[in-house]
Write a structure and sequence with these properties.
Bound molecules: beta-D-glucopyranose
Keywords: Glycosyltransferase, Hydrolase, Transferase
CATH class of the domain at 5-302: Mainly Beta
Radius of gyration: 27 Å
CATH architecture of the domain at 5-302: Distorted Sandwich
Number of helices: 20
GO molecular function: hydrolase activity
InterPro entries: 6-hairpin_glycosidase_sf, 6hp_glycosidase-like_sf, Gal_mutarotase_sf_dom, GH65_N, Glyco_hydro_65_C, Glyco_hydro_65_M, Glyco_hydro_65_N, Malt_Pase/Glycosyl_Hdrlase
Distance between the termini: 32 Å
Largest sheet: 10 strands, antiparallel
Domain Glycoside hydrolase family 65 N-terminal: 7-265
Strand content: 25-35%
CATH superfamily of the domain at 5-302: Glycoside hydrolase, family 65, N-terminal domain
Shape: globular
Helix content: 25-40%
Oligomer: single chain
Domain Glycoside hydrolase family 65 central catalytic: 319-716
Amino acid sequence: MADWKITYDSWKPEEQPLREALCTLGNGYFATRGAAEESTDDEKVNYPGTYLAGGYNRLVSKVADRDIENEDFVNWPNWLPLSFRHSDEEEWFDLEKVELISFRQELDMKDALLKRWLHFRDKAGRETSIYSKRFVSMADSHVAAIEWEFTPVNWSGEVELRSALGGSVTNNGVPRYRKLKSKHLEPLQTGQHKEDTVFLLVQTNQSKIRMAQAARTRVYVEPIACQVQRDTHQKQDYVEQLLRLYCEQGHSFRLEKVVTLYTSRDFAISEVLQDACLNIDRLGSFTQLLEDHKRSWSRLWNRCDLGLACNDKAQTILRLHIFHLLQTASPHIVSMDVGIPARGLHGEAYRGHIFWDELFIFPFLNLHLPELTRALLRYRFHRLPEARFLAEEAGYKGAMFPWQSGSTGREESQVIHLNPKSGNWVKDDTHLQRHISAGIAYNVWQYFQATEDMEFLTFAGAEMIFDIAQFWSTIAVYNPKRERYEIHHVVGPDEYHTQYPDSDEPGLSNNAYTNVMAVWVIQCALGTFDILDESRISELFQKLNITDDDLERWRDISHKMFVPFIGDSNIIAQFEGYENLLDFPWDKYKQKYGESMRLDRILESEGDSVNRYKASKQADVLMLFYLFSYDELLKLFGQLNYELKPENVQENIVYYEQRTSHGSTLSKIVHSWVLARSDRKRSWSNFEVALVSDVEDVQGGTTPEGIHLGAMAGTVDLVQRGYTGLEIRDNVLWLDPALPEEIGCLNLQLRYRGHWLRLQATTQKLKITFDRGWSKEVQVGVKGVVYTFRTGDEREFDI
Ligand code: BGC
């Protein structure tokens, strides 16, 4: 790792699945794993995969005698194939069948280029070198390109090159899903468009999304495109061009493969195949396309980069995280109807579904590219009708968003899943994570805080907040004995606990996080009355059928929600009855399985159940300290008539730290965050684990199936907001840096309410430079004092 680059200087087949995920190139519209151009899916080392934002398809599989329907994230035709051989009597190039003299692969994040240098000797003693470069254009979302510089090092002779588009792919990237149906594509057409251009047209078999790809392949013996002998072969789902030419020892030639990709989900198109072919004719050379691509990335980095002066490792990994975030959510999504998949556009894990991980992802976007958060919130807004249907079906009012969302916003969580450890199909009740709806309301509010986007709040945001508040007020039931409201049959963020050990009913009662979030949403909805004009409020109430009685109930709940505590202590119980669970033998299991464990799978394979133990998969109660400042939380609890003192926060952190297995990469983010002020050393050690979640694949095999975007964005946000103490409250942007020594010096740019602010922080000083903005001055608070910043202002503070 060096600054802007991730480099691999030897070929390690066992590492290839991880490298493919980490070297994925994408532009928000589509992405392709960093598989080698000459490779095909072999279920072990290589898995070329191409994924389209919003590219879903449903299939029904028979599992344990049941029909199970899954909405999958389709693996689209592979546009990469490029290979060579010496004659039609010889085999196509295969890295495993030659002697590698040198190998180097480099992900250049600055230019978003994947490069590979190969120098090898074949069985006949011929030495060849190939230098390949590849990008997925950030300038034109429909374009990708590969360049090969091919050198016959010690031989002269014929060479046959193959450039293809392969549509016979299936979804085969996640071993656990292999027992399920996986053929999503039906081939429609293949053919030749121009002498150097071929095309492929496919369609998904259920959602009927069409994709056309066109590939133009040219060979240059510098400086001119040279005449090669060309043959086109086509099958129903595959098209290739074979190019033959004579090579002179020591003389390189260049091959360019430029690809266009259009789908029936696109705007401003007529027919996908026509558009793919028409537009490929208009494209310039590899070098010209690369220049445009680089310029687009430099604009993005200009907004989003973050500099750590004295920690190279953290610097590079944080850049990698920003890089993958921008490849999943780029400015191209602004006009698209897509959400942000938890595992990026990088693999098939979790089927490209959208979870609450947005909560960890949006804060970074809010302060750099808020237009993207707005687009991603609109994905939720467009799915309000489905959320209303889900609420109604479950007997509630308002909008209940699904735990896992895909194309339409119906619940996409699986009802049973395969435990790879035991081979058993196990019931899955994690869809009871109703807290996701609160997360969505929270995201709307945070976006508004960062942007003051009244138009969005008025026309979409408030409708979501009101309808979600209405849902919470109807799922909450009044318990006259306690004189408090309760919420039953839910699952909290900790997915290990889905029911009580002695019960047959799924769900738990009074998950503290859920109950407090419900109150927060209702308060937020009530607070919105002070911002919106009355006529808009009455329009919305009329549309959503919100009555005065409903409001009465909202107000009542916001003072009388039940929050469980453990006995007489100040420890918030994760859910009611948590204290009755057994203590877990942590030492024994940590010795065997290490720090991060999937205890649900381990215990099930041992005939036990994690539901019986005080053992959490991830932060649950601590989520409250992650999302709210002490002041906000103490106020919330105070309003509910519970006494929570600042010192109790620490006790809660210690209690749950000892009972969490970090079986989700999100967990360490939260643990690092909640310690950021009180214990910088422990915060940093948690941060370090979160930081390497993907580069070191700490969950043991999950990253190859897709990166963990929540953890990636979460680590960047930890530096951006956690360690700078950034908080937007009462129309003031508060800063209170507490940098860990390991960071030393931090440089970043933030977009806040239409302005750009530059922050330079060290452990001793904070400098704020206020660039030009398009709206009025803003208030920035440092260590309790509020300052007004206008264009050109610069101030320095002692920390
Ligand atoms: C975590 C969830 C998360 C999901 C997708 C699960 O392992 O428990 O909190 O939303 O992964 O990232």
